[in-house]
Amino acid sequence: MSDQGLIFNNKIFVFETVMRVRNIETSGGQYLTLEALAVLLEEVRARFLYSRGIQNVNAGYQGLMVDNLQLEFISRVRVREELLFEVGIEQLSEKGGNIAIKVSRMHDGSVVAKARKHIINYDYRLNKVTTIDSSMQERLSPSSLGI
After folding, report:
1. Does the predicted TM-score (pTM) go above 0.85?
2. At 133, phi and psi to the nearest 5?
């Protein structure tokens, strides 16, 4: 595998949320598992989209779907640690875009993980990928996010 790290411009982050690592998200050694981190990242994505007024599936049976995930686990996380998740949008177009997520410890600010999720718009009625409509692009665009 490639050892290519994820690099983000800190100016892209426009949304923050905090979550505490629960016992069920850890391994026998009480460290956060990779699978649990992926689930937390999906919760963060859902919170971010909700904050932008974007539903999982809209009235037209369309919604944003993740089709690629890059994840870099930088530091181990123990049970009950509070994590800060920062979210931003990169390279948004009508074909898709990237959601960038940086995860840090609340108590010292050290970076724990970085992730990039590529999103596409999916039509669940037609079972195919479609373009991201202008309304959704506007809600996700850097200008509407205050960047």
Report:
1. yes
2. -70, 165
